[in-house]
């Protein structure tokens, strides 16, 4: 076997490995369709290595040469469709199919042109450059522009340019005078070597994009309560500092479902889960843009309202209370109603979040002591901070007296 034939075999095995990798990734990725199209891309393109060998050893060479061209080109079109799925871009598959057929017809028309000349090499290589250029352009137009996305664009553009360069290299290095002579030419060795490098580079970058998305999704899932669909305490804690950095005032609303134990006792844990799920949907639907809604306990929820003062926060809490009081719970009898109590606190200037949460919690307990299904406002932050300062001052004085003694 010639050096080019050996590289053809290596390229085939590399492509098959990437096909399996993408199929494995598709089981976990939210872009399953993209991963499967990429798997198909490598699987179809790898068939060209088989057809290239058949060109050299099984006459007549023309059908195998056309099939080799069509398989590589088909794989590249599948790559373009996969890029569309990856970045949620509209893809006109009928147009792509028409272009594919036109390029295959072009290859048939130039088959008998003299090889090793630009008259044959340019029309042969340009379809590959065009399709990869389409993929690079599609990735560039995507809204998401991470470093990996940009690197993918650059790689696709370089691979596209590489096919233009190959047209001139075919003339300079000599690509054989016949299709069967290509396999033993110096140009074939150079071409397959470059193809191996680019196959690995593009394949790894596509895998990187998909794996990074899986990692990001797993991180989000770790911060989301699966029952309510809201953030969990960890997710809330990880986001609250960034949310509080905006212009104030900000407010906190603590919510607690009333008589939740009796809901579980009467309707079972499925009924309790239904109540939590319904309240989570209510919070998610009502929460304004930029707010944070989280489930921080069994039946306890928190809502952070950025740029919202006490009056607006109180109105919001009253609206939530009224909505919860009259809304049925899917999965529970129509007569069943699960109400909620609310504690509202406006976060004072330079007030630590934990103190604002404590004030909201005190207000929530006041609402429950008042009969539940109501809203109570927390003590103003200045009052609480003054109490804290006086307590701290008293502790300091006691410490000093103990030190003197």
Q: Which helices and strands, and how do they pair?
A:
Layout: H1 3-26, H2 32-57, H3 61-86, H4 93-110, H5 118-141, H6 147-174, H7 186-222, H8 233-244, E1 250-257, H9 260-286, E2 292-295, E3 300-305, H10 310-326, E4 340-347, H11 353-369, E5 375-377, H12 381-404
Parallel strand pairs: 4-5
Antiparallel strand pairs: 1-3, 1-4, 2-3
Helix pairs in contact: 1-2, 1-7, 2-3, 3-4, 3-5, 4-5, 5-6, 6-7
Describe it.
With 405 residues, the protein is of the alpha+beta class. It folds into two domains: 3-222, Rhopdopsin 7-helix transmembrane proteins, CATH 1.20.1070; 233-399, Reverse transcriptase/Diguanylate cyclase domain (Alpha-Beta Plaits, 2-Layer Sandwich), CATH 3.30.70. It is built from twelve helices and five strands. The chain is elongated, with a radius of gyration of 33 Å. The model has no long low-confidence stretch (mean pLDDT 85).
* Secondary-structure element order, N to C: HHHHHHHHEHEEHEHEH
Instruction: Please give the order of strands in the largest beta sheet.
Output: 2-3-1-4-5
CATH top level assignment of the largest domain:
Mainly Alpha
If classified by CATH, what would the architecture of the largest domain be?
Up-down Bundle
Q: Helix share of residues?
A: 55-70%
Total individual domains? 2
Structural class: alpha+beta
- Beta-strand segment tally: 5
């Amino acid at each position: 076997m010639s050096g080019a034939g050996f590289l053809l075999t290596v390229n085939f095995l590399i492509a098959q490995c990437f096909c399996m990798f993408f199929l494995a990734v598709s089981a976990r990725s939210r872009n399953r369709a993209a991963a499967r199209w990429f798997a198909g891309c490598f699987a179809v393109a790898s068939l060209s290595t088989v057809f290239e060998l058949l060109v050299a050893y099984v006459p007549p060479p023309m059908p195998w040469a056309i099939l080799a061209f069509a398989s590589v080109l088909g794989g590249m079109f599948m790559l373009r469709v996969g890029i569309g799925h990856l970045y949620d871009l509209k893809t006109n598959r009928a147009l792509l199919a028409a272009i594919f057929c036109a390029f295959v017809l072009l290859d048939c028309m130039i088959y008998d042109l003299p090889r090793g000349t630009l008259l044959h090499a340019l029309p042969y290589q340009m379809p590959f450059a065009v399709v990869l250029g389409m993929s690079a352009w599609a990735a560039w137009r995507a809204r998401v522009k991470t470093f990996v996305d940009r690197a993918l664009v650059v790689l696709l553009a370089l691979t596209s340019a590489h096919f233009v360069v190959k047209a001139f290299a075919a003339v300079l290095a000599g690509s054989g005078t016949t299709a069967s002579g290509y396999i033993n030419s110096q140009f074939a060795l150079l071409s397959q070597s470059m193809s191996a490098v680019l196959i690995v580079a593009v394949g790894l970058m596509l895998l990187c994009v998909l794996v990074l998305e899986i990692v990001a999704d797993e991180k989000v899932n770790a911060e989301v309560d699966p029952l309510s669909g809201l953030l969990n305490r960890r997710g809330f804690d990880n986001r609250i500092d960034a949310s509080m950095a905006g212009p104030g005032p900000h407010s906190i609303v603590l919510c607690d479902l009333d008589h939740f134990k009796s809901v579980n006792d009467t309707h079972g844990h499925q009924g309790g889960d239904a109540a939590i799920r319904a309240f989570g949907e209510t919070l998610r639907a009502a929460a304004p843009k930029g707010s944070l809604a989280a489930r921080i306990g069994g039946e306890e929820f928190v809502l952070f309202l950025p740029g919202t003062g006490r009056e607006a926060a109180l109105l919001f809490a009253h609206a939530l209370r009224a909505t919860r009081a009259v809304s049925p719970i899917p999965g529970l009898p129509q007569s069943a109603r699960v109400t909620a109590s609310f504690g509202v606190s406006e976060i004072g200037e330079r007030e630590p979040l934990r103190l604002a949460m404590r004030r909201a919690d005190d207000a929530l307990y006041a609402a429950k002591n008042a009969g539940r299904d109501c809203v109570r406002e927390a003590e103003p932050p200045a009052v609480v901070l003054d109490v804290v300062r006086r307590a701290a001052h008293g502790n300091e004085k006691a410490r000093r007296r103990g030190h003197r003694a």
